[in-house]
Design goal:
287 residues; Rossmann fold; 2 domains; seven-stranded mixed β-sheet; 11 helices; 40% helix
Length: 287
């Protein structure tokens, strides 16, 4: 069997199983199994696959047909132009979360005009460390805390921090939300669970069966963990600081009221993602 034949076969198989974008999943598995990039694979369509390569490909294809996420099969996911190791200990980074990073980077640009010191920032619920690492890569000299309640998630984050050479600028920290933060933060970014408990069973199999429920379940209201963090924020933020939250569709009204109650005097703005959904809340004037 050649590369082209394998691609034709599994493009059809995945299409019939309604898995992924047509063609994308098959080529990604082929690249991973052969250890080549897409251009190299497509440049040699008549390459004959060895028996060992076919076995590796079939094993990966079976896993994908069982609805295991592609990122867990390949152990890799791109986020904000960077590559991250992921496995079932952590949530897979989503493209919509890049909105959160972009909003935080934009805040830093204005913050540096008013402040002439190192920024202190925290990524709460860091998971694989994607947000913290993306921020560190785009905010020169800032020091970040990558916080998670899960020791297993922090193991993955540490792998990615090391891979990107950021051990000196990112400190992994095990703790529940802001409890272990003992310094005033200039920037807090949090992508916390915000799916209602009752909605988890309706999620697509890739999420429901494989991704950690603790990183998804936001309680009966969907906002319960976010609410707890907001209650901790007042004493954790420096002057001229900002807190950025990723939120679910339609949650801005409830969270807006909670912020007004818990953090009176703060200012709240919404940031839309590329789909036009209110994806991020920016909270300033907290301290």
């Amino acid at each position: 069997m050649t590369c082209a034949e394998w691609l034709r076969k599994y493009t059809t198989v995945f299409r019939e199983a309604d898995i992924g974008e047509v063609g994308d999943e098959a080529i990604a598995l082929l690249c991973h199994a052969l250890g080549l990039n897409k251009a190299a694979v497509l440049a040699q369509p008549e390459r004959v696959l060895t028996g060992a390569e076919i076995l590796r490909l079939e094993e990966r294809a079976v896993r994908r047909l069982r609805r295991e996420p592609l990122a867990y099969i390949t152990g890799e996911k791109e986020f904000y132009g960077l590559s991250f190791f992921v496995d079932p200990r952590v949530l897979i980074p989503r493209p919509e979360t890049e909105t959160l990073v972009e909003a935080a980077v934009e805040f830093h640009r204005s913050w540096t005009l008013r402040n002439h010191r190192q920024m202190l920032a925290a990524d709460i619920g860091t998971g694989c460390g994607a947000i913290a690492i993306a921020l560190a890569a785009n905010i020169p000299e800032a020091h970040l805390y990558a916080v998670d309640i899960s020791p297993a998630a922090l193991e993955v984050a540490a792998i990615n921090i090391h891979h990107h050479g950021l051990e000196e600028r990112i400190t992994p920290l095990e703790g529940n939300l802001l409890e272990q933060i003992n310094r005033k933060m200039d920037l807090i970014v949090a992508n916390l669970p915000y799916i209602r408990s009752g909605e988890l069973a309706g999620l697509q199999p890739e999420i429901r069966l494989y991704e950690p429920a603790s990183a998804l379940d936001g309680g009966d209201r969907g906002t319960e963990i976010i609410e707890i963090m907001l209650s901790q924020a007042l004493n954790k933020m420096a002057s001229d600081s900002a807190l950025f939250l990723e939120i679910g569709a339609g949650q801005q009204e409830r969270l807006g009221q909670i912020i007004r109650d818990i953090l009176p005097g703060s200012d709240v703005a919404l940031v839309k993602d590329l789909a036009g959904i209110n994806r991020c809340m920016r909270i300033t004037n907290v301290a």
